[in-house]
Amino acid sequence: MFREALKTGCYDLQAARDEYRLSCGSGGMNRDLVWRFIDVQTRLITPICPHYAEHVWRELLRKDGLVVNAGWPTADSPDETLKAANKYLQDSIVLMRKLLQKQIMGSKKSNKKGAPAATLTEEKITETRVHFAPDGEILEALQKSSAGQDANFKKVQKLCMPFLRFKKEEAIAIGVQALNLKLPFGEIEVLQENSDLIKRQIGLELVEILSANDHDARAKAGSFSSLLDQNPPSPGQPTAIFLLR
């Protein structure tokens, strides 16, 4: 368990700090939370790096006594909804990067065929519009349902299967609560509140959060609206479209 303790107490905790620091942007990190982080990590790594931990405890934190006698850090129960919202946000940013690369490659191929559309490059793209479908009930048996009998079943299946895979992975990660009929947080709110982070992470000037069910919002995608059909959004998995300004 030595390796697991080192990974969790040092590397994973520092990765969480780095993610928090990036999320704070120009506002900077909360001073009290930074000192709390140092205190917690120092206690966690004491069995592994005792001399270093004692140095930090006395010289940086200015604590009395020895850290080896300070005890294990304590914490309240984690906010599972907040954790789920953060995971959704981070996964969405990763997905947006992949969609950006896919759209860039698609644009280059179109131009090679003589298409009039301007080539998209990471340097040119400054704006994105994120479309996602509203929450819906998970179909217990897709093929046996009325949707499964629909003549247009393949299209229905294309919309439903990504969501079902998403819920399966989430259930493995966080348990039965993942099978609730609705996400425990609002996707629009999470993305809007963190639009500045999305812009910094991907290098954009503008981010708009829109509903794929809104005809006017869909029209904003312009000539790229077909990407919504190629990569249909589903609850928990938005679709990003990148535009030139």
Automatic annotation (TrEMBL):
Annotated ranges, domain Methionyl/Valyl/Leucyl/Isoleucyl-tRNA synthetase anticodon-binding: 31-110
Region (Disordered): 223-245
Keyword line: Aminoacyl-tRNA synthetase, ATP-binding, Ligase, Nucleotide-binding, Protein biosynthesis
The keyword S-adenosyl-L-methionine appears for this protein: no
Matching InterPro entries: Leu-tRNA-synth_Ia_arc/euk, M/V/L/I-tRNA-synth_anticd-bd, tRNAsynth_Ia_anticodon-bd
Origin superkingdom: Eukaryota
SUPFAM superfamilies assigned to the protein according to its UniProt record, in alphabetical order: Anticodon-binding domain of a subclass of class I aminoacyl-tRNA synthetases
A Pfam family: Anticodon_1
Similarity comment: family membership: Belongs to the class-I aminoacyl-tRNA synthetase family.
Record-given protein name: Methionyl/Valyl/Leucyl/Isoleucyl-tRNA synthetase anticodon-binding domain-containing protein
